[in-house]
Specification:
Layout: E1 3-6, H1 16-31, E2 35-40, H2 50-62, E3 69-72, H3 77-89, E4 93-96, H4 100-112, H5 128-136, E5 142-145, E6 151-156, E7 160-165, E8 172-175, H6 183-193, E9 198-202, H7 209-219, E10 225-229, E11 232-233, H8 249-254, H9 259-270, H10 282-288, E12 299-300, H11 303-317, H12 320-326, H13 339-345, H14 355-363, H15 379-395, H16 404-411, H17 420-432, H18 440-463
Parallel strand pairs: 1-2, 2-3, 9-10, 11-12
Antiparallel strand pairs: 4-5, 5-8, 6-7
Helix pairs in contact: 1-10, 6-7, 9-11, 13-18, 15-17, 15-18, 16-18, 17-18
The structure holds glutamic acid (GLU).
Glutamic acid binds next to loops.
């Protein structure tokens, strides 16, 4: 039974990297009919915030990545305490009384000699009785894990064979006290007790993996399989970090990137399908995705690609009725666009937030300034063209307004194919008041006969 987990620390709003890890973990669970576990890693009391936990939870929900089990590390302190006691009693972990100053001196010496910083092991030989007494006397301490001085290797699902040398890691601090366990320790206890079979996470944790494997071994627990996902990079190849600005999932959602497009984008961000296909639904991904085809190198976050994908979803993948509800939060509540209005603008949008501007021609008074005046010089040609169009529209019946095709049919007799632009350009500006807008036939079918007539008449009056 496959059991995988997403283990975010709630120290910032849901990050785009967490969303990608969440997607890959979720897909892996679905592919293997396994369980997806969400574990909030909130042992760092100072940096963890409830609001960030909420942001992670709502982010996963927005993306439709539902979990089967939920845990919060802050509710498991007794479990960690017991496990620490166990490793100390087996002498696999020892209390360390080195002060920060002592360690700074060690570090400075190592740096001066250009050696990596490895704990000297100064407290490793203090007898358990003496250590116990010093703790009882109130001396500050940390708990250190005796790192085996041997090679620690694993077969990473993404990176292949990876090996570290335990003697270059040294004895690591795994808890600030019995009640303040640290990341590498709690993650092992939880992954073991939660029977996690595959740990899929960001590459920033690669160097933690040998430490965690050593702790698994110290307990006699079987380590899980590991798969480390490449870093997400900015265009300049710098790391896209939590602090780097536009990296919160919610910012993408608020700008009107759709969950489907984000999922599609995040999947392609570090995974290559066998062919050149680019559009993948979640269901497609469950069928096609494979962790072995995740690339090792960093993945550049390409906004142009994201915009292109979002545009595909807006323009033809998501249905118009569905779009209609999704755009509500981006437009004033008294705007009630029809399907024809949405259809007329939807192919031009990179994000849903752009829809307000795009639909404004249907809901806000038109200002022809500039754009229509452009035709003033040529009004002797423009006005008769608009009048000819008007005369046809005036006598047409409602069925001519049903679609942009029927509008085109209706006007085919009047629009001279040899000088199309002289009809359609002023017509379009008369109807939209804008330099850039949907085509005139689409607008006419969206606003209907009465409004079309009134807009053309207004425009003629302004030209005169
Ligand atoms: N809590 C860690 C983080 O947010 C991830 C832990 C893990 O996946 O092992 O970076």
């Amino acid at each position: 039974m496959v059991r995988v987990r997403l283990a975010p620390s709630p120290t910032g709003a849901m990050h785009i990297g967490t969303a990608r890890a969440g997607l890959f973990v979720w897909l892996f669970a679905k592919q293997h009919e396994g369980k997806f576990i969400l574990r909030i890693e909130d042992t760092d009391k100072e940096r963890s915030k409830k609001e960030y936990e909420e942001s992670i939870i709502s982010g996963l929900r927005d993306l439709g990545l539902e979990w089967d089990e939920f845990y919060r590390q802050s509710e498991r302190t007794e479990i960690y305490h017991e496990h620490l006691v166990r490793l100390v009693s087996e002498n696999k972990v020892y209390p360390c009384f080195c002060s920060k100053e002592d360690l700074d001196i060690e570090r400075a010496a190592a740096e001066a000699e250009k050696r990596s910083v490895i704990y000297s092991g100064r407290c490793s030989n203090i007898s358990p009785e003496e250590a116990k007494k010093r703790i009882e006397d109130g001396e500050p301490y940390t708990l250190r894990f005796r790192m085996p001085k041997e090679k620690i290797g694993f077969d990473d699902m993404v990176r292949g064979r990876v090996e570290y040398d335990g003697s270059l890691i040294g004895d690591i601090v795994i808890a600030k006290s019995y009640d303040e366990p640290l990341y590498n320790f709690v993650v092992v206890v939880d992954d073991a007790l939660m029977e996690i079979t595959h740990v899929i996470r960001g590459e920033d944790h690669l160097s933690n993996t040998p430490k965690q494997i050593a702790i698994f071994n110290a307990f006699g627990y079987e380590p899980p399989n590991f798969g480390h996902l490449p870093l997400i990079l900015n265009a300049d190849r710098s790391k896209m970090s939590k602090r780097g600005g536009d990296t919160a999932l919610v910012e993408f959602l608020e700008k009107g990137y759709m969950p489907e497009a984000l999922i599609n984008f995040l999947a392609l961000l570090s995974w290559h399908p066998k062919d050149d296909r680019e559009i993948f639904s979640k269901e497609d991904l469950i069928k096609e995705f494979s962790i072995e085809r995740v690339q090792k190198g960093g993945s550049i976050f390409d906004y142009a690609k994201l915009n292109w994908l979002n545009r595909q979803y807006i323009s033809h993948i998501i249905s118009t009725p569905d779009l209609m509800t999704r755009i509500e939060r981006f437009i004033p509540s008294d705007w009630k666009p029809t399907a024809a209005m949405i259809d007329s603008v939807k192919t031009r949008l990179d994000t849903l937030a752009e829809i307000k501007e795009a639909l404004a021609l249907y809901f806000e008074p038109l200002s022809y300034e500039g754009d229509l005046l452009h035709f003033k010089d040529k009004k002797d040609a423009t006005i008769p063209n608009l009048e000819k169009i008007l005369s046809v529209i005036d006598i047409a019946d409602d069925s001519s307004f049903l679609s942009s095709e029927s509008v085109a049919d209706m006007l085919s007799g009047v629009v001279d194919p040899d000088s199309k632009g002289e009809y359609l350009w002023p017509l379009r500006v008369s109807l939209s008041g804008r330099k850039i807008s949907p085509g005139p036939y689409e607008i006419i079918s969206a606003i209907g006969k009465k409004e079309t007539v009134s807009r053309i008449k207004d425009a003629i009056a302004k030209l005169k």
